[in-house]
Amino acid sequence: MSTRRLIVEPRGLASTRLKLLVPVASVIAALIVAGIFLLLTGESPVEVYAKMLDASFGSQRGIAETMISATPLILTGVAAAIAFKMQVWNIGGEGQFLMGAIFSAGIAIWLGDGFPATVMIPAVVIAGGLGGAFWAAVSAIPRVYLGTNEIITTLMLNFIAINFVNFLIFGSSSPWRDSAVATFPTGRPIPDAARLPEFFFRLDVGIFIAIVLAIIAWYLMGKTRWGFAVRVAGDSTDTARYAGISVPRKILGVFLLSGAFAGFAGGLFVSGPVGALDPRSLILNLGFTGIIVAALARLNLIAIIPVAVLMGALNNSGPALQSIGVPTATVSMLQGAILLFAVAGEFLIENRIRRPESVTVAANPEPETA
Amino acid sequence: MSTSNGEPLAVELRNVDKAFYGVKANDNVSFELARGEVHALLGENGAGKSTLCSILAGLYRPDAGEMWFEGKPALFKTPKDALAAGVGMVYQHFRLVSNLTVAENLALGHHDQGVRLDQKELARAAEELGERYDLAVDPTARIWQLSVGEQQRVEILKLLYRDAKILILDEPTAVLTPQEGQALFKTMRQLAGEGRSIIFVSHKLDEVKQVSDRVTVLRNGKTVGGVATKDADARELARMMVGRDLELPTRSASAPPGEVMFSVSDVRVLSDRGLEAVRGVSFEVRAGEIVGIAGVSGNGQRELAQGLVGLRRLTAGRVEIDGEDVTSDTVLERIDKGLAYVPQSRLGMGLAPGLTTEENLALKAFRRPPYSRGRTLVASAFRDEGARQIEQYDIRGVRPGLPIRLLSGGNLQKALLAREVELEPKVLILRSPTRGLDVGATEAVRNQILAEGVRGTAVLLISEDLDELMALADRLLVIYEGEIVGEMQTEEATSERLGLLMAGQRVEESA
Predict the structure, then answer these.
(1) B68 with A367: Cβ contact below 8 A
(2) Which of these, B468, B475, B472, lies nearest to B493 by C-alpha position?
(3) How far apart, in whole angstroms, are the C-alpha atoms of residue B138 and residue B146?
(4) Rounded mean pLDDT of chain A?
(5) What is the pLDDT of residue A100?
(6) Which of residues B74 and B2 earns the better pLDDT score?
(7) Which partner for A294 in A51, A52, A80, B89 could form a disulfide, CB atoms 3.0-4.6 Å apart?
(8) Coil, strand or helix: which one is B23?
């Protein structure tokens, strides 16, 4: 009897080339699979992809729009990545993003017109972070002190936040709602001084704030004592306890920081392209997409920046597809396919698959003499 | 293939290969087991003994090679196949269901007895087998109520209940007192006398000499040789096992110990189950003294060590380091006051498995210079200090960026101990520091412990390995069910005396 099975074994240390190759290959594989679907629905994948590429990068305006879409994704990606590194499964980026948006718009409206931009912009950005951290705390505190499952609580809190935003605008006459518009409820525009200055078509300085914040997160996690302790605790809680690291405090800190980053994204989106707490412009799954960004960047806080640009380009190209009669949902399908391939690719980074060297087990019916 | 008297061999393996993660655990191994013999499999940890046994027991399938069973080619796909053919194994970690009774455990996985479980019949069978083979255990007792030695008997009874013809015992004496070990050997001889074959895995030469008929020695996954035990010379076996002549370091006449550096009085600690696992333990360790705590695993050693370092709350008692009360201090405060700890579980507690060796070497000192300046880490210190310690403590297999979990057990322990020693502690607590290490690493670790004693550290060595305790400790304490039941200078200790104490029998002290 002989067996011929492929052997799967842990790889140990994957090369940098491989770590780069696998995400790129995941994207390509996703494009191919989505292309097959497009063919089945009678579309030409080449034409669709060309249109998407053109919409995202084919013009200066397209590039500006892509970067606008990328800005919140950088921050929600960082939010997901720092939590996941610590084995804190915060999938509440969506809710924390919206809570950040509520806080940002709220402070801008509350402060009103009397303040210069040098006060207003820091205020909206910080308020966004506080809002996200507050919403994360609702999950984080019971997680740390009562051991509740944060996957469930953060997920549920997303829906509460979504409904709360809808309530503020559609269901109540809250200060966030624009009282001047009687026809269809919209968010009240925030004061101009709270708006981020635009410098390239509609692209505002939020992109730089996002990149700087991502770099700060990278520094905090990789280059500080606190970050080291977090990495130890994320790797093994028993080891952290043994080394005198307070694990509950680290979990709490990371959880709140993660929420703050999602909240920053909300704040920058409100004070950047949207300019109001407007449900239709804000509830775009930017928090959820951040999880895809983090996974595709393999939780590398710097790699998140280019990955967010890619995902931003995809998001941005959706509307353009409608002009050629292809549903916008194609973009969601592509994003889903990319995530699936990236997760599957992770297995190839961790493991190696090889053919066994010739294997025969008890194959010889005639025993040799020893 | 058959023996000289024409009877087929019970089992034969020819040219078996088995690799894990690209490392050959068994490399062209051949092995013959005759009917009615006790066959010792001798080798260091990592030599491939357990892999070979697991292949025989159907747990692993070989990558290449042949397996013959009672003269016919065979391949066991699962442990169930193997057991059906009469091959059973007692693993180092028992496969018992702790909430079930002894009798119920016997019935587990035994499907040919209908729907109804005849408890009485099972209990009767267990009792009868236990009596016949000197393996008495109460069939109605639940597994968690039994001592480790009794649980092992249940494992053997399980195999006999299935009428296994070949019994594989993987390091069975590791969890036994010397006296329990002797009882097991008697049972093994009796089983062999009935024509059953026994594979006895060990790395202890004296045991192998005492109980086995033949010895096969493995080294680095290869068979080095097989000899009849009566023709084997202990020195020669040791050389075959290790590949060179080797004397493990032992303490020399020690300098008189200094001041009391570590003082523990009437300490009480609860186990995870909430039972009192440490029941009023008191002792002192002086600077430069190595004090050993002997005991069979599970007698409160884990809870004691964790209580002393602050990982587990003391329900009563007092702990002092260099005259200072640290009873209510946190883990970190105790580290800062000079308490170092080498836990038993290296990757589970002592090291962060996913971080690099350099990062692990800084696991406790990262809060202070040179590793950090203010709140910022100094990357160059991680690199330079890491390189120095890797060199100085001979930690092998390190590559940049490589997670430490990929190092071998010996190198893990060298790194762990290096980190603790680099703290220049006043008190060093170690649990089973050489467990699972090969001889070379054992030598390095023992030397390091002895050097700490010479440096003036108060060393507390908690171990189940009597040879190690007798070789290193100045003074020995024996722990049994959470209490210190004996104390003696190492010169006065014999394994018989320690064994009796470890089994809970208070010895009459002759003055």
Answers:
(1) yes
(2) B475
(3) 9
(4) 88
(5) 97
(6) B74
(7) A80
(8) strand
For residue B424, give both structure tokens.
Answer: 């220049």
CB A287 within 8 A of CB A294: no
DSSP single-letter state for residue A90: -
What's the Cα-to-Cα distance from B252 to each of B249, B489, B491, rounded to whole Å?
A: 9, 14, 12
Q: Do A242 and B331 touch (CB under 8 A)?
A: yes
Q: Which residues of A, range 304-363, sit inside 8 Å of B by Cβ?
A: 356-363
8 A C-beta contact, residue A324 and residue A47: yes
Cβ-defined contact of B349 to A231 (cutoff 8 Å): no
Q: Nearest 5°: phi and psi at A319?
A: -60, -35
Is A143:A78 a contact under the CB 8 Å cutoff? no
In the chain, the amino acid numbered B338 is G
- Domains of chain B, each with CATH number or no CATH: 11-242 (3.40.50.300), 247-338+424-511 (3.40.50.300), 355-422 (no CATH)
> Taking CA B366 as the corner, what is the angle to CA B365 and CA B368, rounded to the nearest 5 degrees?
75
- Contact status, residue B199 vs residue B56, Cβ threshold 8 Å: yes
Outline where DSSP puts E strands in B111-221: 166-170, 197-202, 214-219
What contacts 24+ positions apart, CB below 8 Å, involve B388-394? B389/B361, B389/B415, B389/B418, B389/B419, B389/B422, B390/B357, B390/B358, B390/B361, B390/B415, B392/B418, B393/B417, B393/B418, B393/B444, B393/B448, B394/B444
Q: Which of B9, B16, B376, B385 would you mutate first to test chain A, the one with the most A CBs within 10 A?
A: B376
Structure tokens at B41: 């499999």
Instruction: Write the pLDDT tens digit of every residue in A160-174.
Output: 999 999 999 988 888
Provide the pairing of β-strand B372-373 with B376-377: antiparallel
pTM above 0.80, yes or no: no
Tokens found for residue A245? 């690291």
Cβ neighbours of B481 (radius 10 Å):
16
> How far apart, in whole angstroms, are the C-alpha atoms of residue B223 and residue B26?
9
For the segment B222-239, what is each residue's pLDDT rounded down to a tens digit? Answer: 888 888 888 888 778 878
The pLDDT of residue A365: 37
SS3 B58: coil
User: Which amino acid is residue A202, in one-letter code?
Assistant: R
In this complex, do A362 and B75 lie within 8 Å of one another by their Cβ atoms? yes
Place of tokens 């090291």: B351
Which of B297, B246, B331 is closest to B431 using CA atoms?
B297
Q: Chains A and B: how many Cβ contacts under 8 Å?
A: 109
What ipTM goes with this model? 0.83
CA distance B424 to chain A (A): 16
pLDDT score of A290: 94
